[in-house]
Structure formats: structure tokens, C-alpha cells
Design goal:
By secondary structure, the protein is an alpha/beta fold. The protein folds into two domains: about 190 residues, Vaccinia Virus protein VP39 (Rossmann fold), CATH 3.40.50.150; about 55 residues. Helix content is about 30%, strand content about 30%. Helix 2 crosses helix 3.
Length: about 250
């Protein structure tokens, strides 16, 4: 099991603590994605694959919107959590363990829209790994279909290489939760430690470690174009309301 699978398997049961109210978040993000889909000519008949679904933050929200959604991830821990959350939301979703670098090994069909949210692509620690992921994903999109992904604004972050991310402080009726990350840089790679401090009922401190490669927008754009996408557009939080830059590529 690699570092990414271990990171998400361990984080799965606490991932929702990164949000003030996960249930509200899935609805808000689904509205944002729905708007992007509609703006690009798609409606609820579109078949969507969330190829890095995690605990279902986007996939469940989209299913609640009425989209035909399939969800996959490499983390069994997160898939288990996602299935429970889908059941609690009374939505029917197919959850599959699949590596987005080799989607054709799991899926025989193509999808109208493939999404890959929450900075999943920078888990690819080499250029060749990222290229393999983009090739795999674009091959699973129908002609005329769309790819949507969000990543951190690494073009800006690489200028200063900050040692940490600003904390999220969520006050609840039971106390508060604080989450933040420390970043240790080595070139365009960085080791990340995610801390979650839960001070609601009793004080609990959790720590999860992972690694990323900072991916510039130009690199990702070029890979999408070279793998069959004719139009690539970047949209930023002030435009979309989403917390990270979003790339939209049409095949």
C-alpha cells in the first residue's frame, strides 16, 4: 500500500472534520459543479464519474442533484465511509475501487463528465505519473465530454513555498475543531502533515502524513491538450465560489 492510500485510509473516519458541516458542504459544492456542467451544455442526463471520490463529498451531492453518478477511489477506507454516507442520504451510487491512472482496467464504458476534485492529481509525484493519470482519465471521457478537476494554486504557492496552510477553525455547539497542514518543501515536492485538533467533547489530536508534487497550471493544460482535449479553461474561486482553482477541459 502506498503513502497516498495509507493517508486516506487513515483519514477517512475523520475527513468530515475538515468541514464545519459536511452535509451542507456537499450541497454547496454540487450546486457549483451543476452550474459548470450546465454552462458547458450538459444536463441531468449526463453520466458522471468521480474518479477520486474520497468519502463522497462531490459524488453524493451530485447524486442528490439527480445526476447519474459513479464513484471510484483507491482508498478502501474512504470508499467504506462513502457507502455509509450515501446510504444515510438515501442515494443509489456505485462505489468502485479503481486507480485513476488505470481506469480502463475497471471501467469498460466512457462517461460524459469525469471529475477529480480536492487536489487529487498532485498526488502524482512525477511528470510521467501525472501524464499516465491524464491519459487514463481522458480515455474514459466520451467525445464531446468534459473533465473537471480542482487543484491548489501552485503557481502562486511555488513563489514563496509557505511552511504551513492557514488553520480552519470551526466553532460548534460542543466546542471547536481546528485543522491545519504543515508543508516541508524539496524543490516542487512537499511533505504534508495534516493535523486535526478536536476540542468538542474531549481533546483529541490526530496527525496524517502524505506527499504532493506542486503542479503548475501550464503543465496540466499541456497534458490535457496533448491527450485529446481541444479546449482547456481555468476558473478561480472568485468566479466559481469553489475553494480551489478549477480546470475544465472539453474532449
Amino acid at each position: 500500500m502506498d503513502i497516498t492510500q495509507t493517508f486516506y485510509d487513515n483519514l477517512a473516519s475523520q475527513y468530515d472534520k475538515l468541514f464545519l458541516d459536511w452535509q451542507v458542504t456537499i450541497q454547496e459544492q454540487a450546486v457549483i459543479l451543476d452550474r459548470l456542467f450546465v454552462d458547458n451544455g450538459f444536463d441531468k442526463s449526463a453520466h458522471i464519474l468521480d474518479c477520486a471520490c474520497g468519502i463522497g463529498t462531490q459524488a453524493i451531492g451530485l447524486a442528490l442533484q439527480g445526476y447519474n453518478t459513479t464513484a471510484s477511489d483507491i482508498s478502501d477506507g474512504e470508499l467504506s465511509e462513502a457507502r455509509e454516507r450515501a446510504a444515510k442520504n438515501n442515494v443509489q451510487l456505485q462505489f468502485v475501487n479503481a486507480d485513476f491512472c488505470a481506469l480502463s482496467e475497471t471501467f469498460s464504458e466512457q462517461f460524459d463528465i469525469v471529475i477529480c476534485m480536492d487536489n487529487a492529481l498532485p498526488h502524482m509525484l512525477t511528470k510521467s505519473a501525472l501524464e499516465a493519470a491524464i491519459k487514463s482519465i481522458t480515455n474514459q471521457i466520451t467525445d464531446g465530454g468534459m473533465f473537471v478537476a480542482s487543484i491548489r494554486d501552485y503557481d502562486t504557492l511555488l513563489m514563496d513555498k509557505p511552511p504551513y496552510s492557514p488553520p480552519y477553525i470551526h466553532k460548534t455547539d460542543k466546542g471547536q475543531r481546528v485543522s491545519f497542514q504543515t508543508w516541508t518543501w524539496d524543490g516542487d515536492h512537499y511533505k504534508l502533515i495534516q493535523y486535526i485538533i478536536d476540542d468538542e467533547n474531549t481533546l483529541e489530536i490526530s496527525k496524517f502524513e502524505c506527499e504532493y508534487r506542486a503542479t503548475r497550471r501550464e503543465e496540466l493544460t499541456n497534458l490535457l491538450v496533448s491527450n485529446g482535449c481541444s479546449k482547456v479553461v481555468w476558473k478561480f474561486p472568485e468566479e466559481t465560489g469553489f475553494y480551489q482553482p478549477i480546470v475544465i477541459a472539453r474532449k
